[in-house]
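Batch 3, record 17
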Amino acid sequence: MRKRNLQRGLSAFWWLTLAFLYLPLVVVVVFSFNATNSAAHFTGVSLRWYRRLLGNEEILSAFANSMILAITSSVIALVIGCLIGYGMYRHRHRKLGWLIVLIYLPIVLPDIVFGISEMTFFVQIHRLTGLLQPGLETMIIAHVTFQIPFVALIVYSRFVGLDPSLFEAAKDLYASPWQRALHFMLPTIKPALISAFFLSFTLSIDDFVISFFTAGPESATLPIYIWGAIRKGVSPEINAIATLMIGAVAIAAVLSLLFSYRRPTRSTANHRRGTEESEP
Amino acid sequence: MAYSDVIPSLRSRALVSESRHLLFTVAPGAFWIFVFLVLPSAYLMGVAFMTTGPYGLPEMPLSVESFRRLAGFGFLGWSPGNLYTLLRSLWQTLVSTALVVVIAYPIAYYITTCREKWRPIMLLLVVVPSWTNQVIRTFGWMNLLAPGTPLANLAESVGLIDPNMGLYPSNFAVTLGLVYNFLPFMVLPLYAAFEKLDTAQVQAAQDLYASPVRAFWHAVFPQTLPGLLAGTVLVAIPAFGMYVIPELLGGGKGMMLGNLVANQFAGSANWPLGAAGAILMLIATFIGLFAMRRVGKRLGGGEEVVI
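Prediction for the assembled complex:
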């Protein structure tokens, strides 16, 4: 009896917490359809803020900047991070403490310290050499720096999860290291590469502080634009862009759910195939 | 492999190629992080020990002037402003971390009691809000706490705030924003701890007629401690350096260390002062990490606290 009461109380608490987590997002979505420019009263449904959005060139260019930044930085981070992840696995019996420290540094450094270090450094380099003018270029560099560790750790943990005899088998099958990389390693770690790419992409889109400090006058991303709009005074247009971004996240959430339900069967299949191959 | 063990020259050649392999795979990334993060941070630390020139930019000679300024010693004598900001950051971190624990603990437990097929969905529901941009989430709270909204009206009718004042900017709004922002970071590690809980220990405690409270304290709580520690690291350290939430929800009287630092690089620039603040933040971060590691190791669950 007592146990059931506890369970009921927990269930109520769960729904309350969910309400707490989703309330701010729901408010943004609802008020993006508000007919008047009021943050307190909902007066009727209209799409005027969305129409206004389409005509706003600043927003469109901010969107384009966000996309260019996220895709370019994720691709660079994927290549570099994947190499480190493999290196860490292959040489895991060596003492690589310095490498671990280096890889964890971008993760543990507070955002604000990260952003400001990069900003001051870029500004001084630019003053001395004329290179690295604040803009998309510097933002891409900064984003790649915080994405590399995540890619490396995902790829590394995928390699650790593999049966070591697979590597011996691949050595017997393919003569050159390049062939091995192309026909054995890349296909085996493909799921890890895909999730690492999406994580990098999300990290880039999610980031505000580091982008804010490394951006130039022409390279505002969506979050930076929204930040500026909030500082200038709240406009319902912000609700409309924010709603579109929330929609994108919702789609990503559904996709990741579908993916997580499919993955177990696939990985067991892989594993089975792997053990068969490794048997002589 | 066997040959290289027998013939020394082959082995040394293998070692050389191994080293080259290490260099080839690890060097690009290590170089990238070194050039674009280690060097910049080192430069920032150097800036803290320089003099403030015109336009707030750093200049020679070296001095500790910026640290004196950070401690509150200005041209007009000592003022407590910066000290308040520092204490407020510590207080906000402490309060929000404690609140996050209080909310996340039952939630994580509840998820493990639900059917297995629902658990991934429930975890996803907790995490998804944190996938949206921090600025947007905080903007959502601004909408909710503004004057004239139901929450503000409620607070007004109870007499918590003056009429026609919203619930933000205020320290309360900052705490709320921090709790909201970091809740998922605590739920996930706690869930992992609860999921592999050894129920035999709980059973044993009950068989020995332990009261529910004692059973919890001796059989359940110690087992979840590694998750709790990991969560505390993930919440407290970024909370201490938070910039966006106090900037939007706190106003001038809700400023935290992150805002103090950031302000020195925009508007009223003073790079050395900002750099000194950044050093303070780094010291706090590393003390926090180190302390958690020590505590984690002593509890024997050191492996769980990855960072």
